[in-house]
Amino acid sequence: MRTELLTLGRLGFCVADVLMICIFFHPMFSRRIKGLRFAMLFSATTLAIFLENAFGSTVLNLLSLPSVYILFACFAFRISISNGIVYALIYFIVFSGGREAAFEILSRLISMITPYAIPPWSTAYGIPYLVAEYIFALLIILFIGRFTSKLKISGNDRFCWYLLIMPTASLAILVSYAYMDFPESGFIAIMMSCGTILLYLSNAAIFIILERYTEAMDQIKAAQLSALKMDMEKTHYESIEKANQLYKKHLHDMHQYFNQFRNLAVRGEDQVIVKIVEELEGRLKAEENSILYSRDTVVNVLLAEYCGRAKEKGIEMTVFVEDGLDLGHISDGDKISMFGNLLANSLEAASQCKEQERHIGVKLYMGNAYFVIFQVENTYIAQVQKKGEHFLTTKKDKENHGLGIKIVEELAEKYGGVLEMQAEKRCFTATLMISLYQ
Questions:
Q1: Is the pTM above the cut of 0.70?
Q2: What is the 3-state secondary structure (H, E, C) of 331-368?
């Protein structure tokens, strides 16, 4: 350990390092701890970086600092372990290790083409240049924060590992350049330095590209959701119109029934009156149930739509919805995605069965005081395929199908629930459990 590096000035740079980590992560993830606990974690991380830097070893920093950053991110922010590893490594590559390598090459260029020699960062005379380096890094972090704040990062994002490819390759190139002899030719040195800086900055552009991609996907999703809502509104209006027609029909016939009741009562035909009333009541209940399944408009329209589709395909579909269910904490778009995908899959599977074996049963009810259950049972004949605990699509075009179940699983996780599936005796059951407390 080099005692000349154990100074308050060096400690200040370590504080700046941890502060910039917070600035980098804050737009994307919320804080897990606050107050005194966060202050203690902040201080411990600062001290760890300070002691590591005191050895003055670049190799030690490359090997140990990423672990310190990962631990700080996972303890300080609400973040999954995979996201904590990936984004902490990206921070280290872009704003710590990669930054030092890039500025090391730039300082060599300045010392080569100008009469001013930039002293090493480990000396007291190198501190002003370190200040400029840190200010530049801070400006980059604040700039990309405008884009990272718009990112919607899921808790289990397997895609995030691909983000490490370019930063890791860039760090390897930058470190290799830093350990190479600097070119004697001024033109080659300038080209090498410019390429180094552009390579360093290109890593920050990842977040700009991600934000643009997220924005484009949100627009596509919004357009699809708008089209779905238009179709559902049309179906809903058709259901209302159907109810109005039934109401008008029964109102028109009501005076006929009363006349007959009067005549039958005069003749003492009480049993006939009771029989007619029971028949009429049963007919009214059947027609009512065919229109209203749930007081939730989106759920009701979905069930009505798929009941209509099932009837067209000769599928017997039964629906049970518990009274008084409150699904207000689930967005309309998520209801369409979760319930719609499960209903579509059941309809597709049941339609492939023989006519007398086409059945679908739908239940929506409270499992307990904390979970609501959406269960779909259907007959099937296709050979069920599984990979581990996951069911695979039976359609031939596997690349363009099989996404529905994955979407339902991700949305179930979003609402603190889970999707369970079972296949036995030609009956497939999908049980979606959703927490009432998001």
A1: no
A2: CHHHHHHHHHHHHHHHHHHHCCCCHHHCEEEEEEEECC
